[in-house]
Design brief:
2 copies of one chain form a homodimer. With about 130 residues, chain A is an alpha+beta fold. Chain A has 6 helices and 3 strands, in the order ααβααββαα. Chain A has a domain of about 80 residues: Winged helix-like DNA-binding domain superfamily/Winged helix DNA-binding domain (Arc Repressor Mutant, subunit A, Orthogonal Bundle). In chain A, helix 2 crosses helix 3. Chain A starts with 20 loop residues before the first helix and ends in a 14-residue tail after the last helix. The structure holds a DNA duplex (30 and 30 nucleotides). Chains A, B: Keywords: DNA-binding, Transcription, Transcription regulation.
Amino acid sequence: MNTELSAPGPSATAVEKGFCPVYRAIGVLQEKWVLHIVRALLDGEKGFNELARAVGGCNSATLTQRLEHLETLKIIDKRTEDTHGKLARSVYTLTPVGRELQSVIDAIDTWGRAHLQEGHPGVVSAQGC
Amino acid sequence: MNTELSAPGPSATAVEKGFCPVYRAIGVLQEKWVLHIVRALLDGEKGFNELARAVGGCNSATLTQRLEHLETLKIIDKRTEDTHGKLARSVYTLTPVGRELQSVIDAIDTWGRAHLQEGHPGVVSAQGC
DNA sequence: TACACCGCTTGACATTTTAAACCGGTGGGC
DNA sequence: GCCCACCGGTTTAAAATGTCAAGCGGTGTA
């Protein structure tokens, strides 16, 4: 309430800020796991479980939900690979739009490496990073 | 909790991915409102309520919590301004580390402007962007 | 036949975010 | 002096969101 500018409006939240692409972009990217998913996919297309593993800890329910959302936003593409016979493998890829998030991930990566180094002893800097 | 930075526990989730700063950075930046807060502060230091308004919709409880977290991460600084007489105003600023998130915000900004232009049903545009 | 993997879905549960009211204090108008 | 708006928050309970574990139909490998 104290965060309102002036709007006595019912819907509140993001609206009174006025719509802007940056605001929305942040809204999308801050959803839990989204950046992890994008990062994993920048590394190449992946199947569902494969993606879950690459992302590192997201459970299937959440992952399904995120993937649906990202698909409607046209950030990723879901393709059902009709392999031999009946088994259909789902493959997730970034769309061109999604691939452009590379710059965002890079920026985060750079920042993280520069400022978040305080690692724990015993944790060897693995790759896959 | 699994994205916790300080987790000393060798157990659980994120670990099998192997520790890496990017992973951790994503963990920090994806917390709700964090990017909004950083963006607002990149625009100049702000008081508590002022920040809440700039961020656009975050409630005070969450904001308090986020600010504390960001402070322990040394991304922001809290200063208590001893204004004329008695009234103490709290002012939040980005540290140099926090200021370097400018590149991340810029990347998101660029991406958002390029790909998120189409309106969203029900969201009326205003200003402040 | 048995067992491990695939891509999910379900339903119960835990955590996080939220609105709203409230606290003590300041400052200004009347 | 009284009223009321603003400051920086805290507290509550309820809603939203995320998670866990189990399980489904199906395949492929041994």
